[in-house]
């Protein structure tokens, strides 16, 4: 699913493994990969970064709130690398998809050859009493003693 094809009313289950931006009630923004969620909208993010306004910037924005002229040079954001994060659903204001999951980040799938499957030969080795390697043979000799 490409990022351009995500609908506005998308459910969270479709955003698993997407890179998302989460805005909280204290005006912090968390950017990370969505791993999981629950019925209370608690979110689990990996490789998470937090972006939050510094105290001086918050005070400046409160003063300028009435006026529409905001000087961007006075607004400073602090960035922190957090890693694995659980966000409480009560504090979440919005969730925005930023990037679709990469093929590398998805869980690897089991790949088996069709026809003569390697699993059958492995099962024969497991069921027979023959050791797999020299180390196994050495262990078998020690058990016999």
Automatic annotation (TrEMBL):
Keywords: Cytoplasm, mRNA processing, mRNA splicing, Nucleus, Ribonucleoprotein, RNA-binding. Residues 7-101 form the Sm domain. One of its GO terms (cellular component) is cytoplasm. Transmembrane segments: none annotated. InterPro entries: LSM_dom_sf (IPR010920), Sm (IPR047575), Sm_dom_euk/arc (IPR001163), snRNP_SmB/NAA38-like (IPR050914). It comes from the Eukaryota. It is found in: Cytoplasm; Nucleus. GO terms for biological process: mRNA splicing, via spliceosome. SMART domains: Sm. One of its GO terms (molecular function) is RNA binding. SUPFAM superfamilies: Sm-like ribonucleoproteins. It holds the Pfam family LSM. Belongs to the snRNP SmB/SmN family. This is Sm protein B.
């Amino acid at each position: 699913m490409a990022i351009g094809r995500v609908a506005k009313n998308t459910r969270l289950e479709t955003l698993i493994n997407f890179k998302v931006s989460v805005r909280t009630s204290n005006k912090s923004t968390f950017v990370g990969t969505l791993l999981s969620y629950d019925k209370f909208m608690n979110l689990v993010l990996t490789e998470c970064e937090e972006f939050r306004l510094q105290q001086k910037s918050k005070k400046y924005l409160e003063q300028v709130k009435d006026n529409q002229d905001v000087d961007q040079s006075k607004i400073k954001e602090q960035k922190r690398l957090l890693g694995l994060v659980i966000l409480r659903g009560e504090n979440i204001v919005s969730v925005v998809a930023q990037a679709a999951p990469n093929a590398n980040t998805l869980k690897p799938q089991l790949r088996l050859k069709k026809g003569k499957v390697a699993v059958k030969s492995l099962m024969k080795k497991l069921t027979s009493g023959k050791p797999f390697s020299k180390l196994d043979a050495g262990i078998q000799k020690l058990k016999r003693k």
